[in-house]
Amino acid sequence: MRNAMVQLCLVIMGISSIHAVRLMQTASFHVRVFPATAADKVWAIQGHDSVEMTNVQGEYYLRSINPGYWQVSVEANAPYKDSRYEMTVKPGIDKDLGEIRLQND
Question: DSSP state, 35?
Fold first, then answer.
């Protein structure tokens, strides 16, 4: 019985270690859009893949992403113009892009 408990603890520690290493290899970022009601959708683009970012009261979040080169595309409501921003995200970092101020047409 004691041997089984030790083996179970070792398996749990191994699985926890794998997940911890995996989390350290991912990244995340967030951005605020001003005015908050001006943005229709905000997309994060890497290569040929795109993900719609989650909106929480004018702040847009994207978590557990692959590090590297990303573009943020803001689809704005009229009379505001669409915007696109580029950045590089490093592993294990939660990058704050600050505030994107949308311009009028």
Answer: S
Domain boundaries, the chain: 27-101
Single-letter amino acid, residue 105: D
**Contact indicator for 79, 102 with CB cutoff of 8 Å:** no
Residue 62: CB atoms within 10 Å? 21
Q: What is the DSSP string of 71-101?
A: EEEEEEPTTBPPEEEEEEE-TT-EEEEEEEE
pLDDT of residue 21: 59
CB atoms inside a 10 Å sphere around CB 25: 11
Q: Does domain 27-101 match CATH 2.60.40.10?
A: yes
CB neighbours of residue 97 within 10 Å: 15
pTM: 0.69
pLDDT digits (tens, 9 = 90+) for 4-52: 888 888 888 878 767 665 555 678 788 888 888 888 888 989 888 888 8
Closest CA to 76 of 100, 43, 40: 40
